[in-house]
């Protein structure tokens, strides 16, 4: 298991667990990003990631990605 912030671009991962601010978690769940979901790291930037699942793409900061284990 590793933090999502350490994941490589272009790879797919299954989310094992995630924690953080309830509002952020609820936003992610509303876009089908939750424990058990398979996501793809589309692009890594210096302080953020673009991730996708099915037809949804979102950008998250490294501080959020640190709280997601894949």
UniProtKB/TrEMBL annotation:
Name of the protein this chain belongs to: Ferrous iron transport protein A
Gene3D superfamilies, sorted: 2.30.30.90
All residue ranges annotated as the Ferrous iron transporter FeoA-like domain in the record: 2-70
InterPro entries: Fe-transptr_FeoA-like, FeoA_core_dom, Transcriptional_repressor_C
Pfam families xref list: FeoA
Organism this protein belongs to: Mediterraneibacter hominis
SMART domains found in the cross-reference section: FeoA
One MF annotation (Gene Ontology) recorded for this entry: transition metal ion binding
Record keywords: Iron
Keyword Kinase: no
